[in-house]
Design goal:
It catalyses: UMP + diphosphate = 5-phospho-alpha-D-ribose 1-diphosphate + uracil. This protein is an alpha/beta fold. It has six helices and 13 strands. The chain binds 1-O-pyrophosphono-5-O-phosphono-alpha-D-ribofuranose (PRP).
Amino acid sequence: MVDHPLVRSRLTDMRDARTDSASFRAALHELTTMLVYEAARLFPVEEYAIMTPVGPTEGARVANPPLLVPVLRAGLGMADAALALLPESSMGFVGLARDEETFEPRAYLESLPTDLAGKPVLVLDPMLATGGSLVHCCRLIADRGCTDIIVVCALAAPEGVARLEGSGLPLRLVTASIDEGLNDKAFIVPGLGDAGDRQFGGM
Ligand code: PRP
């Protein structure tokens, strides 16, 4: 969990029901920058020799830039910020919509490299509720040989965290908050509503 005054402030803007779509998208963009910055602490670096104007020194770079995978729709609002911090990254896409009655994800898009062996993957989705969507997405990635998945979420429910933990998938989670729980519609409480609708309008 990332506990920082600016992280709390942007997450508060997103939670506030009075925040309009443009301000919501701006807050998610800035929050993603901070969460990906923290997630990147887990990346190995490689050192290499450079010359400054004054003389030689050792530089450093991310050894193996990850594949970024925003989960559509809501994860789209995190893609630009993550790519700006990790410009050498490549990007894949997974489209999932949660059924409003069963709460199970329905997949409508899988655009991922076929072989992810040796490739770290950063999955971007603002919300982890029941965990059905992220387990589905991370399983697609693990089935392609990935053994290093970092999930970046704005906020999570304890039920979703437990489902990810119980999945046995090779993943770590970076989030700004673990909220109280889920209501009878499987919405995170207090949460922020539906991150897709708040960014892009209702379907
Ligand atoms: C939301 C959210 C997650 C998922 C979380 O997406 O962005 O992907 O629900 O719920 P879960 O943990 O219970 O699976 P939604 O299905 O509403 O689609 P959208 O991004 O198109 O709005």
